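Re: the 498-residue chain
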Amino acid sequence: MDLFISATLVFFLFFLVYKSFATRIYRLPPSPAVSFPIIGHLHLLKRPLHRRLHRLSQISGNPIFSLKLGIRRAVVVSSPDLVEECFTKNDIIFSNRPHVLLDKYVGYDHTTTIGAPHGDHWRSLRRIVALELLSTAPLNGFLHIRVDEIRHLLSNLEKASRLGFSRVALRPRLFELTFNVMIRMIAGKRYFTQEQEGEQGKFLELIKQVFDLAQSAHPQDFLPFLQWIDFRGFQKKIISLSKQLDGFFQHLIDEHRQEKKNTMIGHLLSLQESQPELYTDKIIMGLIMNMLLGGTDTSASTMEWAMSLLVNHPHVLEKARKELDSQVGLHRLINEEDLSNLPYLQNIISETFRLCPPAPLLVPRRSSKDCVVGGYDIPRDTTLFINAWAIHRDSNVWDEPTVFNPDRFGSDVQVERNKLMPFGMGRRSCPGSGLGKRIVGLTLGCLIQCFEWERTTAELVKLDEGAGLTMPKLVPLEVMCRPREVMYEVLQQVISQA
């Protein structure tokens, strides 16, 4: 027995020595503070996260730094040059996503466009989205939906302010617009009005729960032992949520099987007939979820930020209105074909994207193998955060970076993609950027063209950011609004068509 114990101890010591020599010693990016046992640097994270990470970058004195978040290692990058290095030389390595519990249950076990690992399956999904759903031809085919929903918005605003300047809350109206555009493209029906009842109300409540959960980080993703005890009942909640959503999505798919419709679901079901192994119901449900998550809150939030910035800068608003009056006129609404002839409006949108990016930390990536960034070793399975918000406000990149100045995007200015990246970069950049730009451009153009806008008080609208991955305003925007007299006849035509 003593001989056996001695042999076991020798073997164990040999194994430890071997591991110590075999384990690679990494030259990691610096950390801004000492890591605590178990939780690592989780205690350092505060909301809004993009501002906190920017502050930690300043503390570390380096545009790249590392964190230990529970069992996970993370690297935060806040430099255009390092972003270029991540998404050119190392783009394939950083083409995976970190696994999170929400994506496991609501994202069909990491098999959707957003959460799937880089590989053949993801490439197939990306091709479906880029070619079958969001390419120029299908987007042009759904133009009438965008126009119709904008008419509903304009009609509702006119009714609310026809007696003169009236106070209006823009956030719920903009969310209604973007949600309706997406759900009508997907399923051919309006699911969102101010009156929410029955099945419609239940569906909307489920979608809002997904938005709320997707906007936050959850302790279980960094400390797996919390999953074993189901900390705060989180797993039970998302499992129930996923089952209910599956029921609604399956109902939409079955409806389309019975009645052929010219929608995204209808198109996917027609492809399912010839390629059933690729276009399964599960894949279609995942695409529906991704479209709703990626195309609703981001566009609504961008337009709310843009209107906040415009009422704080009336001279910019007036300059944009003069451009619209000159290029479009006073006898018709702006249309999507006009957008290319409205450079100042495009500059306003670009400047809004710069100051208020829809994803200030982009969507996190995960390294599939060891690599080097900025001269530092990045081990496999490291989560990568790109602080686009910090880069967009970097004084080494932009003159007067905190000032709202659309003129910085003049016709002779070419901005490098690693300096302005509202839709990300590389293979996993947002495939819906074209749709987002169309919705934001056309909606903002109509709001500026048809209405006068003022702040509710003499004080500037506060631009504080709330918590969330899409950086919502902390205080929802309320503004004074009234129809422009010179656009009266056009608005009456809009009301009759809405």
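Residues 87 and 425 are 7 Å apart (CA to CA).
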